[in-house]
Write a structure and sequence with these properties.
The chain is of the alpha+beta class. It has 15 helices and seven strands. α11 crosses α12.
């Protein structure tokens, strides 16, 4: 089965640029970029479904091939919503591009990476725990820890012969995973994560978030009902989520355009390079430079992150 998902502001969309970002780590196991296609397993009504996404410029969208029994999967609306949210296909970049064109740092970036969308994280638990995993360690080791967590506690299927298993989906020799659910992680003990080289504090934070979500004390519905400032305060009220993590989640999951992870080391390094500074700028200097970004903060940050990727 194939469907087409329309892309808002298609003139400012580059599937190729999105793929560059999505292939940034060879330890990524939640999706796979092969040639010009993007593959990901999406769980629809408890059924893991393999999707293959390709560019469809003549249709001003992306084409998605869905590997599922049509008698089982009769409604593709969730898949459309999921992929639209993940790749930010419903974003209109005109206001950001007009703003960035007048900024000495951002102007060359929007030309170099024109059409890049802010690739998100489509599930709240993954977004929060990934922000915790990435605290105060390099990106490579963060991906290692994430991979270990997913391999141990994620879910998936085998697609080639339509055989469902508990752990993996395998197609063409490639294994795909689905991120663990809060209830699964909530049942663990800190020692389970420490054995994977998580620090004690990160293990505690991840288990605390998993239990809060499993018990619905941290509620997706409530988060979605809040404006940006209230949503940030709500997230910060949970142990393990600071200002950086809250803004990261609001940027990558909740899609607040004004979300600014001010303390982010990658942002600091990118600004140092783009401004040709002799040393990494202080937090006060970062705050001064970024204060005019306002509703463009999330995209400005993302394009600066992209500038660090070789």
């Amino acid at each position: 089965m194939k469907i087409v998902i329309p892309v808002t502001d298609h003139e400012n969309f580059s599937f190729a640029e999105c793929l560059v970002f999505l292939r940034r780590s060879d330890k990524e196991c939640l999706h796979d970029v092969t040639g010009n296609s993007l593959r990901k397993v999406i769980v629809v009504n408890d059924i893991p479904v393999l999707t293959v996404i390709t560019d469809a410029p003549e249709k001003k969208g992306v084409e998605v091939e869905i590997f599922a029994d049509a008698n089982v999967l009769t409604d593709t609306s969730y898949i459309k919503q999921y992929i639209t949210h993940w790749l930010h296909l419903d974003a209109d970049l005109n206001e950001f591009y007009n703003f960035a064109a007048k900024d000495k740092v951002l102007s060359p970036l929007i030309q170099q990476y024109k059409g890049l969308r802010l690739i998100g994280i489509p599930e709240l638990f993954e977004a929060i725990t990934w922000s915790i995993i990435g605290q105060q360690i390099n990106l490579s080791f963060a991906y290692t820890l994430k991979q270990r967590l997913i391999h141990a506690y994620g879910h998936s299927i085998t697609s080639g012969d339509s055989v469902i298993t508990e752990k993996v989906i395998s197609s063409g020799g490639k294994t795909y995973y689905v991120y663990p659910q809060p209830a699964t992680i909530a049942a663990l003990e800190p020692a389970d994560l420490i054995a994977m080289q998580f620090s004690r504090s990160k293990a505690d934070y991840i288990l605390s978030i998993a239990r809060a979500m499993a018990e619905e004390r941290l509620s997706l519905a409530h988060l979605q009902s809040l404006g940006y400032a209230a949503a940030r305060e709500y997230l910060i009220s949970f142990k393990g989520i600071g200002n950086w993590s809250a803004n990261y989640v609001l940027m990558k999951f909740s899609r607040y355009w004004q979300a600014l992870p001010l303390e982010d080391a990658g942002l600091h390094n990118a600004l140092k390079y783009q401004l040709q500074l002799p040393a990494k700028p202080s937090l006060a200097e970062i705050r001064e430079y970024t204060q005019h970004w306002q509703q463009h903060a999330a995209y400005a940050t993302f394009y600066l992150w992209r500038s660090l990727q070789q």
